[in-house]
Amino acid sequence: MRRSVLFLMLVALAMLAGCAGGKKADLVNSSAGANVEIPRDSLKAKFVLTLTQPDGNTQNLDAVLFSVPGKRYRMELTGPMGIGVASMLWTEEGWTMTFPTEKLYMKGNGYMIGLMMDASIPLVHIHQVANLFDGKVLPENFEVEEERDQVFYAKEKSGRKFSFAKKDSTVEWLSRTGRDGNPETLLFQDYKAFEGVITPSKIVFQRDGKNYLEIKIRKVTRNKPFSLGTWRLNVPRSFTPVDG
User: Fold this and answer.
1) Contact, 154 vs 144, CB < 8 A?
2) What distance in Å separates the CA atoms of residue 140 and residue 157, rounded to the nearest whole number?
3) What phi, psi does 16 have (nearest 5°)?
4) Beta strands in the chain (DSSP E)
5) Cα–Cα distance between 178 and 192 in angstroms, integer?
6) Using CA atoms, how far apart are residues 162 and 121, in angstroms rounded to an integer?
7) What is the pLDDT of residues 204-235, one digit of tens each?
8) Spatial contact of 211 and 203, defined as CB atoms under 8 Å apart
């Protein structure tokens, strides 16, 4: 069974998940004069994924994310000529992923997406993936253990260690050990304000000092309704399930 598209989508999502989290929603003044946290009602992000193969060749995919934070997400990936490559729908009741070019699909439950029985397919924390496009580039609830010259050595809530560097108020890079024991680094570049939220518009992923994935955020919009069709993902009868 060919899994090139499946692996591409899940690797892209997994790399996103590794860097997201840690920034609060906007604070506004209430009528009583106190600061109150206003959650995002919706978010739509358009971006480009560029994957660099080991032989140096690159593959570009256009992507769009529809998000109602913490409740439901829809992601679409398209290739050349606008051909649909993959679709993903996550809700609290379960998730579905389809791969039209390969006529495959996956289903599951919970916030971790992937194949439990296949170590070659990474598991993805869907909430962390969506958070990245709202300017959240650090893990949630982390603890700084040491700081030297604006380089911070920290620990996630799970106990996993990582380091990151800041310049002024923005994070420049984040580094941690990958599943294979080798270092993985994310570079956050070209910060821009997307509807008032400062977000890196370019994220470069490196393994052993070599680039292998790049994300360019084109546009982010918030607090606008989505059509009911956004939250429907049908699986054709001709599609076969991805086995573990």
Assistant:
1) yes
2) 8
3) -65, -45
4) 27-29, 35-37, 43-52, 58-68, 72-78, 84-91, 94-99, 104-108, 112-113, 124-125, 143-148, 151-155, 161-167, 170-177, 183-194, 197-207, 210-222, 240-241
5) 28
6) 22
7) 888 778 887 888 999 999 988 898 899 999 99
8) no
